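Model: You mentioned two targets. I'll fold them one after the other.
Researcher: Yes, keep them separate.
Model: Target one:
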Amino acid sequence: MKSTPFFAGIGLAALLSSCSVYHSAPIDLNAEEASWKEASRVDSPTSITQNQARQIGLVMNPDLNKARLKLASSNEVARQSGWWNDPSFSWDIEQVLQENTVNMSGSLGFTIPVTGLPALEKKVAEQYKEADFWTLRQAELDFLSSLDQAWSKLAVTQRRKTVIRERLDAIRRENGMIEQLIGAGEVDFSSRQVASQRMNDAIRELQTVTETELEQKMELVKLMGLHPSAVRKLGFLTKQSFQLPAAVPAPSPSALTASPKIKAQLATYA
């Protein structure tokens, strides 16, 4: 009787050793940011084209990678669904007949399925996998559209910046000529004030468009999934011919049905 606690302790220790142990692993934000910054590092001034920005964004954009992880999870769930057999109840009916010295026995068994859940689980998992696939496809199309729009805005801003600089250089040359004319007594002092006001307006406009350019570059870097520090050495080759796009025809019902967003919603509904 005295040895009972000892054996109970051994049994408890064996039970505890067989249990899984959870180790907390909090996210180190500083380490994650350092890793992100290292992956986005640009060692020397580099200029990229619109096509290169698209390729970088398709790999680095966090929203797209989140959608890819969700699709991978759905693929794994669909692969593992329906592995277990449908639970069932079974019973035996046995009848024994006895008459004089003759004994007769027989058995009869029935198996009745309960739910049919494995097949339903497999079908539901496949629908969610299809929905996540079309959701990812639509996310990629939305990303490319957003990047193209941001790229066009930056191209217009940079072109506008170039025009303002050219006008500012022309105003500076004009002010130099006005100073010479004032020195020669050909122009009064009020003309200098007007010229100075025009030059100050052009300088303020250049400062505003420069700030807008930086904001649009930051937006592009964010869309591409790069660290904000990459904007310092990353250039964007936006010089392109500006042409009006061709008119887009109204989509037909079949074209609407083929949209990835609608397909994802239909798969989710199914």
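Model: Target two:
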Amino acid sequence: MANSSISEIDQTAVLVTHLAQICLNADNADVTFIVKGEHLPAHRIILATRSEYFRALLYGGLKESKQNEITLDIPAKAFKYLMKYIYTGRLSLKQMKNTDILDILELAHQYGFVDLQTAISDYLCKVICMDNVCYISRTACLLDLNSLSTACYTFMDKNVSNVMKPHIFRNISYEALFGLLKRKTFNTDQVNIFKAVHDWCRFNEAKPDKAEKLYNQVRFTLMSQHDLLNVVRSANVLDPNRLLNIIAEKEKSSELPHRASSLLEMTLLNDMIKWYFSGATSWSWIGVIDLDKLFMVNCIRVEKSNKLYSNYQIEVSHDQQCWTQVAPRTGSFNFWTVAQFRNRLVRFIRISFVRETEDIASIEVMYIKN
């Protein structure tokens, strides 16, 4: 049997090198693109072979198919990078500016280079940071790239306080901002969201219809009556009757549209628990934990410091007013007490009937996807 290294000839690297040499080279070129005043030579057959868009443009009977010079209203630098990709199938993004990468992404979408679009989108998902998230989310929404939009939103969810800073928030596009505000997981004080949206509308001179749609995404019933009367009313963006309706709904409704982070895996050590001694029985210690903000939770595990018999009771709450028991007092000699329950919005956790505070080593709080 012949050795595969001898029977198979692979000189694709040489081919790519030769094609790279004729990219944007006037030798044997049969069409020139005029982009922002620059004359960029190309070869019709290569472009048509690589792209249905260019096949239709150059051979489909359009007026351009008979022209030697074709003017395109696109970024010149991005088009040069695209031409390199067309001729070689290669493109190095690492040293490029984010603006150039986003321009290339738009051209890949416009000219139907699906594989390039996917590759750039995947790359951007990995390099999202505070300096570029607004611009990436703008392009993702413009091109309807769901996975890239989701990656931007997830980053914003995890960095709410920084995203809310005016010099960042003002640069979010309307489409991206609307999508962000619809998410239950964009979790911060609602009055801060209102202030940021109000500032965005003024800074970007939002048209009344767009401003109204953004304000409608603010969950006013989660705001205190003080903030409604002193912050929202003074902004003069809501009809007085609607403001009264919001206050009435807030007072009578028990199911308010809370926001919460959807994923949580947090370990809380003993010294993070506030202990209170009730004095009612020998099992008199009560521990309360404040997670600082709302999270979607469906599992709590209590790690004990020993295997001594225990029958703790675990309760959760979003406001410290209404508590729900998620683990009844069922005794065990295990190191762990595990409570799994349906998805709940949780900020506070209370563990009762503890003999000694040192009995609890840690508490793990988590959200487990179904």
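Researcher: Noted. Anything on target two?
Model: The mean pLDDT is 86.
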